[in-house]
Amino acid sequence: MRVRHLARGAEDGYRSPLLPGLKSSEDAERLAEEITFATTRLWLMEQVAAGATVESVPGAWREIAAPGELDARTLAAFQHVLDGPRGLKSGNRDDAIAGFEAWAARTGSYAQAFTGETSWTPERRFERIFERLGGVRGLDRDTRYELLTLLGRLGVYELRGGKLFLSGENEATWAAKRALGIGDPLLLERRAAELAQACGMPLEALDLALHNWGSGDRITDGLPDDAGPDQGLLEQAQDALGL
After folding, report:
1. How far from chain centre, in Å, is Cα 180?
2. Is CB count within 10 Å lower at the N or C end of the chain?
3. 163-182: buried (b, 16+ CB within 10 Å) or exposed (e) per residue?
4. Which pLDDT does position 206 carry in this prediction?
5. Rounded to whole angstroms, how far apart are CA atoms 126 and 11?
6. Residue range 15-52, pLDDT digits in tens
7. What is the pLDDT of residue 192?
8. Residue ranges in the chain modelled with pLDDT below 70
9. 26 CB contacts (<8 Å, ≥6 apart)?
10. CA atoms within 13 A on the CB side of 27
11. In terms of C-beta density within 10 A (0-12 exposed, 13-18 middle, 19 or more buried), how is residue 141 classed?
12. Separation in Å, CA 211 to CA 23, 91, 117, 143, 205
């Protein structure tokens, strides 16, 4: 059993039905900032995908978003995630790469593997591919979620996260249990969806937001170290959380 000692703000009477596990406005404020930062990051990805000139974003984003052969763009995204701060933490990297290649080869190509059924909604596609990638050695929850988010927001495939898949040993799940005050996976998903909706932010943003909030160390994934959340979005999240 792993015992985690998370930094906590001082209890000051804070209460919100959206964050039943928190009793500190400092903790809630920090979470609002992380949700907004993660949403801003997704918005920047979409700007890159739309062809806008966006400064201070990872060069790999432009490579992935640029029109071209889908398999090459998919591999570029996979490599970017593996090399990133939420890439492989353990296991054999070569085995993970070989497993990923073999997984795609079984359907004929990366494009076919990530497209799946043409009738799927973007949310259904995200869920099914996330599940299928679970069979690839070394690709843990964080790696899979980040890869699908990147491919979707940069316009490679029609993918949108309709769930967070909160389970297992990872920072986002630990943080969600603390903030949302529940351990049951189904209730975690429901409360996470309610939180995102109330803040007016994409559910996918909670993945990185919870990770950063729980670890106390913001992952920017190539954005400038001083990159901050959009002020208007931050005020929106603060209002939703009663701050």
Report:
1. 17
2. N
3. bbbbeeebbbbbbbbbbbeb
4. 97
5. 38
6. 999 999 999 999 999 999 999 999 999 999 999 999 98
7. 97
8. 1-8, 89-92, 224-226
9. 9, 10, 12
10. 25
11. buried
12. 19, 21, 31, 12, 10
Other Cβ atoms less than 10 A from the Cβ of 237: the count is: 26
Per the listing, tokens 């906590």 go with 8
The two three-digit tokens of residue 127, written as one number: 């869920």
Read off the DSSP letter of residue 118: T
What does pTM read for this prediction?
0.91
Amino acid (1-letter code) at residue 201: M
In order, the DSSP letters of the chain are --------PPP-S---TT-TT---HHHHHHHHHHHHHHHHHHHHHHHHHTT---SSS-HHHHHHHSSS-HHHHHHHHHHHHHHSTTS--SS-HHHHHHHHHHHHHTTTSHHHHHH--TTS-HHHHHHHHHHHHTTSTT--HHHHHHHHHHHHHTTSS----S-----SS-HHHHHHHHHHT---HHHHHHHHHHHHHHHT--TTHHHHHHHHHHHTS---TTS-TT----HHHHHHHHHHTT-
By three-state DSSP, how is residue 140 classified? coil
How far lies 162's CA from each of 72, 105, 129, 165, 243, in Å? 26, 27, 12, 9, 27
Contacts of 212 (CB under 8 A, 6+ apart): 34, 37, 38, 218, 219
